[in-house]
Amino acid sequence: MIRVSSKFNQIYHRIFSPLPLPFMIHPKHRIIIMEEEQKLVKEGTNLEGSESETKLELTVDEVVEEYVGSLGFSQMVHVLLVSLAWIFDAQSTLATIFSDAQPPVWRCKTGLCQGNNNNNSTGSVCGLVPGTWEWVGGNTSSIIAEWNLVCDRRFLAAVPASVYFLGSLIGSGVYGHLSDSLLGRKKTVQLSCILTSITAFATSLSPNIWIYAFFRFANGFARSGIGISCLVLTTESVGCKWRGQVGQYGFFFFTIGFLTLPLVAYPTRTCWRNLYKLLSLLPLAYSVLLLPLVSESPRWLLIRGRSKEALQVLDKFARLNGKKKLPDNLSLVNPCGSQNGESDETSPNNNKENLWTTKWAAIRMVTVMLSGFGVGFVYYGVQLNVENLNFNLYVSVAINALMEIPAVVIGTFLLGFTNRRLLLSMSSYIAAVSSILCTFLSHKGSTSKVHNNNSGNWGQLIIEAIGFMGASTAFDILYIYCVELFPTNVRNFAVSMLRQALMLGASVAPLLVVLGRLSPSISFLVFGVLAISSGVLSICLPETRNAPLYETLKQQEEEEKHNWVSHNDCALEMGK
Known about the structure:
Elements: H1 6-16, H2 27-42, E1 56-58, H3 60-68, H4 73-83, H5 85-94, H6 96-99, E2 106-108, E3 133-135, H7 143-147, H8 159-180, H9 184-203, H10 209-235, H11 243-265, H12 272-279, H13 281-289, H14 298-303, H15 307-320, E4 330-332, H16 348-351, H17 359-384, H18 393-415, H19 420-439, H20 458-485, H21 488-516, H22 520-538, H23 553-575
Parallel strand pairs: 1-4
Antiparallel strand pairs: 2-3
Helix pairs in contact: 1-2, 3-15, 4-10, 4-11, 5-10, 5-11, 8-9, 8-10, 8-21, 9-10, 9-12, 9-13, 10-11, 10-21, 11-18, 11-20, 17-20, 17-21, 17-22, 18-20, 19-20, 19-22, 20-21, 21-22
């Protein structure tokens, strides 16, 4: 469907009169109209007396579908380069699984551990005299071993992970604003990667738990711009039917980061500081070498009044896809009101709409955030809780990471023909049922001297992995769902608000993980309850499968009202 100038109106009436001219003309009529116009021009007909050139006005979606291609080679390369940043996001987020883990094995320095009546048969170090025992892996294997975060200091071990997610919560709001306004999607990703690299290296130099917690907070703030901006930057470059699948590709690279983390962590298992030093190198190299090759989002350029640059990006995509150059008379329809490609970034039309003062959008955003809190709590909590499984830590993390792959593949496949709302709720219910089943397979944990993690409970591990796959699918789908629920001028802000809700849930999860060291069944039960709550809340959201991406809140409200009325009219006609 295309919008047309007044000259097209005259031609349309000549050809299709007495049919009424709607505001939008079907694409198949455009060819007839343009052929007629060329004929009239050859005959010397001067439509409207003053215009000598037809102006073709299209939306970004229409240009992508008709001239660029819904998903061509250029967009696949674009998506690949952008999605690589998810690897660093995953590694930065989940590094605490290893750096903050409680060492499983300790031993007496002498034949008799003083202060312990049971001598070497005890499972706890809390009754021992300090200095009479040691961790088998050394005092630098984790922050718990180095700073003695056990017994009455055990809850201090949860502080760094909690403040990390609090940093992500705050950073999501800041990066969301920067990405929608000043910096754009691409520069926000670049800034986030550079700051992630700096703060990760600084974390490795921490002299105590409080400085370590501060740098983890800073690292969480720094990395929070990667995920939200990458997701929006990739989905805004492709056609409607590929939007969900492309969004899932980013989560596949997040899975790669998760899966490669044990490979990075194992060689550094004797010194947690080396882990952070290694992780600081990759995002810096990416932001300098690969990210400059990425194009900015044409949708963002358009709503910022930079339509010429938006057309250049679309033309670049088209040519790399083997398509013809975009027509010279093509211009983009800007719902924000900027015309003729002139920069108008200070125009009030670009910024007057506010998500929180628009009733329908605010209600929708609150519902998404409440659901996101539960999903984030379960998704990150289950990952951090692997140390409370009766199994080898590295094997448990690797299996959980592997379960992300079928979650992404299944999610990508189902997104093509399944309603988002149904898929989100069912994934949440799978996570809930699996978590509740794990409560019956858990046993009371402790800081044990002899703890055989290599021959653990396979049944519990398998059920936990299935639950994690459900939580991972719900996590991925919720991001795609949020992108489709809100228009371009607030989309990045909406995704950042979802990110804040996810991080708020994640910031509480480490406290439950520490509690799970005493009673694993409690942590799994809480995971189950919150997963059910998220699934129920998702039912309140509208379905977005095959819906267009709108540009402004006003446009989306009008179009959704029109579609709702049309749907009801059709239902009434069918009922007659």
